[in-house]
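Hi R.,

Here's the chain you asked about this morning:
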Amino acid sequence: MKRALVTGGSGGIGSAICRRLAADGCYVYIHANRNLTKAQALADEIKTGGGQAEAIAFDVTDAAASRAVLEALVADTPIQVLVNNAGIHNDAVFPGMSAAQWHGVLEVSLSGFFNVTQPLTMPMLRSRWGRIINITSIAGITGNRGQVNYAAAKGALHAATKSLSLELASRGVTVNAVATGIIQTEMIVGVFEAKAIESLVPMKRAGRADEVANLVSFLASEQASYISGQIISVNGGMI
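And here is the predicted structure, written out as tokens:
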């Protein structure tokens, strides 16, 4: 049984990914920072349904705390599926953006990627099989008004995805990114009205979290063994 870690696993997209990976037969570690109770409820739900899951908590922006938890987790057995899903947005037009808004968003998405992925890489390489999947955003491809910080973080993750894929390819470890468009989660409530979504998305609707999870499931599978270094967007035809 492969072990999977999903950061930000208690959120809308994260929880859908956790459910799908558990259904695929993985033992899923559901990461949370402040929402451990929510992550534990999801783990209980998965176990009730016959899957295997466990809730864990640490702050991905805290390098030392992240390393301590993760090194203990892989002391005997590697994590072979890593989904870097943790992320926040704190929007403002750039002239009015504070340093805290800039650094806060980059710390979670970009430093969080390093703090979680780096301690897990060598154990994964030694197993000669692994899947690293970074959940990013269409904003990292096209940009978005009011999200210079968020777009910068996600665009940097795209570059990191491509570079890391080159380093790990010969050891059977793939690295890909899933760039989401407008997905129906709590994060978009009050941000996008129905008419705006119809105007922006050729499919005239927001995506579902399970549609993102379906792609993650495929990229985490043996069927995707020759796909690496790719930025694959789930956006209803927006680009």
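One quick note: The chain has a mean pLDDT of 96.

Cheers,
M.
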